[in-house]
Amino acid sequence: MTFARPIALALLPALLAWFVAQSIGLGSARQGLDQTLLLTTRAVEAEVERLRALPAVAAEDARIRAALAGTGSLRDANNYLEHIAAHAGADELFLIDGEGLTIAASNWNRPGSFVGENYAFRPYFQDALSAGRGQFYAIGVTTGVPGYFLSARVEVGQTLGVLVVKLDLRPLQDTWRAADADVALADEHGVVFLSARPDWQYRPLLDLAPETLEHLVASRAYEGVGLGQTAPLLTEPPRGADAAGAGWIARLGPVPATGGQVIAVRPTRGVYLMALGWAVLAALATLATAAAVKALDQRRQIVALRLSQSEKLEAMVIARTADLAREIEARTQAEGDLRATQEALIHTEKMAAMGRMSAAIVHEISQPLSAMEATLAAAELGMQPGDSGTAGRIAKARDMIRRMQRTTKHLKSFARKDAVELTLIDLRAPVSSALDLVLPRAKAVGVIPGLTMPEDPVPVMAGVVRIEQVVANLLLNALDAVEKVPGARIGVTLTVVDQEARIMVRDTGAGIAESDLPRVTEPFFSTKLTGEGLGLGLAICMAILADFHGMLDISSEPGQGTVVTVTLPLAPTGKGAR
C-alpha cells in the first residue's frame, strides 16, 4: 500500500506524456512528409511542364501539317519528329491522324515503331480531339514501356490530327529509390504508377469501382499487370490529407500537372519508441516530485498559516483604501457639479437682469418713437405741394421709425411672461415675428434667412410668444453656425403635412459632430466656446414644444449643415386662428 499511491499517481503523467510525445512526433512526421510532398510535386510538375507545350509547338511546322493533309513527305515529317524529340529530351514524339492511325513518329526507323499503329482507344487521343489537349499515363501497348503522354490537336483546314509526346518518368522513380524515399505517384483513378516501393507498383490506393476498372481496361492503361487482382494499399479512405497503414503513416497531395496524387510514407516505429521514452521519463519525474512534495509538506503548511493572516490583513487594507477612493471621487464629482450649477445660476441671473433692462429700455423709447412718428406725419400734412424731395426724406424717416416700433413691439411681447394656456393661433404670425426679431443679428452676420410659408392660415393650439421664442432660438443657433462661413444660407420653411404643421430651419454651416448630436438637447450642454452660451436654448425649446404636444428633431452632417424640424399638430377644423 505504501508504493501503490505514488505509482498510481505517476501513471497519469506517463500516459499524458505518451499521448503528447506521440502527437508531437506524428505532427513532426507529417511536417516532414508535407515537405517531401512539396518537393516531389515540384519535381513531377517540372518534368511534365518541361514538354507540355512541345506538341502544340511542333504541330505548327509545315512538314507536320503537310503530312497530316497528305500533301507532304512522311519521311520529312519522321525526320523532323526524330530531330525534335532528341533535342527536347522526349522519349517519343508521333503524329496521329483523325482516325487514330499513327502516320509519323520519331522512332519510325527503330524496332517497336509507332508508325501504322492505331491509338484511337487512348484517352489522350480522344481528349485532344474533343478539347484540344490531353494527358494520360499508361504502359505502352507497342513497346511495353510506361510513360506519360501529352497531346495537342492539329487542324489543317477540315483535317484533324493529334501530335503526342511520350515522357518517361521512370528516372524520377529511380531517384526516389536511390534516396530511400518512400514516395509514390498515383493517377486520377488512384492507381500507383510510380513508386519508391516496388511492391506498391500498379496497386490502387482503394478498391476500384467496377466502372473505373472497366474504363482502365478499355484504355489498356495498365495492360498485363493484373490490376483488378491486386489488393488496395489503404484499408480505409484517407481523412483529408492523412492516410495510415500497418506500421506507417502517409500524406497525400494533389499534382495539378497530372491531375493525380503524390503519396509520401514514413514508418511509425521511431515515433512510438520516442513516446514510450518520454512516458517513462515522466513517470520517474512524477515519483521524484512526489517525494520532494512530501518532504516539503509540513513547511508549506506553516508558511501557509502565516501567509493567510497577512493576506486577510492586506485584504482589509485594500478594501478600506477602495472605499476611501470612492468617497473622494464622489466628493470631487459633487463639488464639480456644484460649481457648474453655481456658474449656471449666476449666468442665468445675468441674463434675467439683462432681459429686465431690455424691457425697461423698450418701454422708455416706445413713447418717444410714437411722438416722432406723429410729428413727422403732421409735418408731411403741412408740407407745401411740389416739395417732393422733403416728402421723400420724411417718408423714409417714418419707415425707419415704424421698423424701430415693430422691433420694440416684438421685444416687449418676447419679454412678457406667457402662460402655458393653449390658444388657437395662425402659426405664420409668430414665425414671421421671430424672423423680424433676429433681423439685426442676421444683418451683423451677413446672412438674411429666407422664409417660405403657405398662403392659407396654419391653425395650431399654442402660445404666440412661446412659439416666437422657439423659432427665434433656432434662428439664432443657425446664425451662430453660419457665421464666418463663405456663401452660407439659412432657410425657414412652414408647411402642412398629414395634419401636422412643420417648421424647418435649415442652414449650411459647420454642422454638429456625430458624437455631440445625441446630447445637444441636454441642459447645460453647448458646443460653443466657453462663455458664449449656457446650453439651455434647445432644452427650453423641447420643454415648450412638449407643452404644445409638439416635437423637435435635429439632423446634421459635419461640414454640410444642420436641419432642425419643429412639428405641431394642426388644430381641429372649424375654428378661426388669430
From TrEMBL:
It is found in: Cell membrane. Residues 360-572 form the Histidine kinase domain. It holds the Pfam family HATPase_c. It is a multi-pass membrane protein. The chain crosses the membrane at residues 271-293. GO terms for cellular component: plasma membrane. Its EC number is 2.7.13.3. This is histidine kinase. It comes from Roseibium aquae.
